[in-house]
Amino acid sequence: MDIRALRYFAAVVREQSFTRAADSLFVTQPTISKMVRQLEDELGTPLLLRQGKSISLTDAGKVTLARAEDMLHSMQLLKRELIDLSELKSGELVFGLPPMVGAAYFAPVVSRFREHYPKIELKLVETGALAVESQIRTGEVELGIAVLPVNTDDFSSLAVVNEPLCLVAPANSAWHGRESVLLAELTEQAFVLYPPDFTLTAHIANAFRQMDKPLNIVGTSAQWDFLAELVGARLGITLLPHSVAQRLDPAKFDLIALADPDLRWHLALIWRNGAYLSHAARAWIETTRSVLPPTKDKS
């Protein structure tokens, strides 16, 4: 059995699309389709149900995915253990980082790590926090940043950032001059937010469900600065972490603290429970501890 077929199959399930899976692996879509079809032929049973744009797993597909994730993780483990023989004199660290997190918090960590371990190749994978969790499970990424809470059965974590969210609205909005605002006051507004697979958007959507209110999303982007441009164009309002919102020009935006205590930007460095951690990963954890003092997890 070709290990690539298992990797391609897991990517299709994760991305819910043959095209997006091909893009994420830098191969062509026909290559992905061919390898998945060969895997199904080799196993003698369908693994995926294709209904329009929807992809779901058959019973055999669910079993195969679980075993594929174990095998992919084992392959990554073997590579890391062999690299470790050089004791940080060479090797790589693959780190999952949501786009907003890198600019706001982790540039100093990267700088310190590069200063101390210049021969370690650092590969930063920019993707949503939920995707980071998925990629850590399969071993594609060794460490990453996620939004708490995470499943403690799956992950160990080091909480590093805990700050409030801010309402970002056009200057001279209805909330101009306010020090704080409650989410309940925003239920009739149009929002521009991160895509649905980003954890912050999921948390906001869940808060709206708890209030039994619809969340009106009129635009999405994976980049916080473009979300701000959409707000400036008066397409809608958004919610950003305090430290990110403070980068915006207060002459162009109203920046008001969100007073809801349960809706905060609480980030953690996470890794797979019980997994082998390379020396590079351990060094990254210690570097993070020194640059970003751990916060208390109140989740």
UniProtKB/TrEMBL annotation:
Q: What family is this? A: Belongs to the LysR transcriptional regulatory family.
- What are the protein's GO molecular function terms? DNA binding; DNA-binding transcription factor activity
**What Pfam families does UniProt report for this protein, alphabetically?**
HTH_1, LysR_substrate
Spell out the protein name for this chain: LysR family transcriptional regulator
| One GO cellular component term | cytosol
SUPFAM superfamilies, A to Z: Periplasmic binding protein-like II, Winged helix' DNA-binding domain
Q: Which UniProt keywords apply?
A: DNA-binding, Transcription, Transcription regulation
Parts of the chain that traverse the membrane: none
Record-linked CDD domains: PBP2_CidR
The HTH lysR-type domain is annotated at 1-58
Would you say which domain of life the source belongs to? Bacteria
Gene3D superfamilies per record: 3.40.190.290, Winged helix-like DNA-binding domain superfamily/Winged helix DNA-binding domain
Q: Is-annotated flag, keyword Transcription regulation?
A: yes
InterPro entries named in the record: HTH-type_LysR_regulators, LysR_HTH_N, LysR_subst-bd, WH-like_DNA-bd_sf, WH_DNA-bd_sf
